[in-house]
Amino acid sequence: MTSRTPSAKYIDPLDHIWITAAHELGLTVARSPHGYAHTDGKGNLFLAPQEDLDHDDCLAQMILHELCHALVQGEDSFAKPDWGLSNDDRDEVYPDDITREWACLRVQASLLRPYGLRKLLAPTTDFRVFYDALPGRPLDGAEGREAKLSHDGLSLAHHPPYRRVLTDALLATAELHRAVAKASQRSQRGPASSATPLPLLWHSSPAPKLHKSGLPMSDGMHEAPDAATCAGCAFLLAPEKRTASYRCQRTATEDSAGKVVQPGSAACALFEPPLDCQTCAACCRHAFSLVPVRPSDEINWKHPQLVAKSGKDLTVIRDPERRCCAALGERDEHSFGCRIYHDRPRTCRDFTAGTRNCLEARRRVGLDA
């Protein structure tokens, strides 16, 4: 009998998705017995070997969690060992690491929420208690430094190179989740086996049902508030003509107005109540770098000090320190107002809350996933 020479190495599909994501971002994933997870600041992410992990540890989740740490630590985190975290239990250092861990978990839950993966790829460390207690909108309740780190981390996730890589990986994971869920349903109908003390992770984290829009009815842990419907969602776009359809702006793209939905339908897990522009102001902050001004706009002669000119192009001056429109007034940490609201440019007047552009602005400043 002749021996066979293997021509390929098998790798778990879910692991492959996230190892590839890490690679595209410049990280090589390797296994090391020296700790649960650490980075060397030189492009290597070391994770504990499988025999040192718990039964519910998932390589994909570990990679995602470390990427969320990198997001919270900022744009230069890849060049720092352990993303720049101290991992020190001295009293004067450790509390800040705890704050950053909480922010990391809020970012992780936020990224998983739109795909119904919040439970499947949940952390398996002792911080799981904090993670499980997060509300349906994971950034709610964060204050001070934790809130800023969370918003900045989620904002960075929606900028290159993270956005495409994370979106591709999360979409692929969600598709795999649904495929495995179908097989899991069939296997659960078969005879039970006493040889397996714990249910498979896929069994305990079933893929959620999908809304007509294609969005999940559950984020994996939370559903929309009771009795919530699409009609009450901030991102339902009403038709301009009576014969047209209502559309979900969470599914809108540059080439599509969004999926057709019925206002009376039960809301999906991403339900958002009506927005308060004065507590958001995403479009006025660092979501967009330029606000074009037309020659006919009143701001030109009523507030010329706020208008910058470059050739024939006119734009509203930006405040470089606050990273926002120079006309944006800040009343407190959670309240904003335009100081020239009645004289604002046409660009601002045409910008409508609840549209695809509004959602994009909120994502870019870390208010939405």
What labels would you give this structure?
three-stranded antiparallel beta sheet, three-stranded mixed beta sheet, 369 residues, 3 domains
- Low-pLDDT runs of 5+ residues are none
Strand content: 5-15%
**What is the terminal-to-terminal distance?**
57 Å
Largest sheet, strands/sense/barrel: 3 strands, mixed
Helix percentage range:
25-40%
Structural class: alpha+beta
The topology string of helices and strands comes to HEEEHHHHHHEEEHHEEEEEEHH
Radius of gyration: 23 Å
Tally of alpha and pi helices: 11
Principal-axes geometry comes out as globular
Q: What average pLDDT do the residues reach?
A: 92
Number of domains: 3
Number of strands: 12
Task: Summarize, please.
With 369 residues, the chain is of the alpha+beta class. It folds into three domains: 13-162, no CATH class; 224-274 and 355-369, no CATH class; 277-352, no CATH class. The chain is built from eleven helices and twelve strands.
Provide the fold topology:
Elements: H1 13-24, E1 28-31, E2 37-39, E3 44-47, H2 59-73, H3 94-112, H4 128-133, H5 144-157, H6 162-188, H7 201-204, E4 236-237, E5 247-248, E6 259-260, H8 277-280, H9 299-302, E7 307-310, E8 313-316, E9 318-319, E10 324-325, E11 328-332, E12 335-338, H10 346-350, H11 356-364
Parallel strand pairs: 1-3
Antiparallel strand pairs: 2-3, 4-5, 5-6, 7-8, 9-10, 11-12
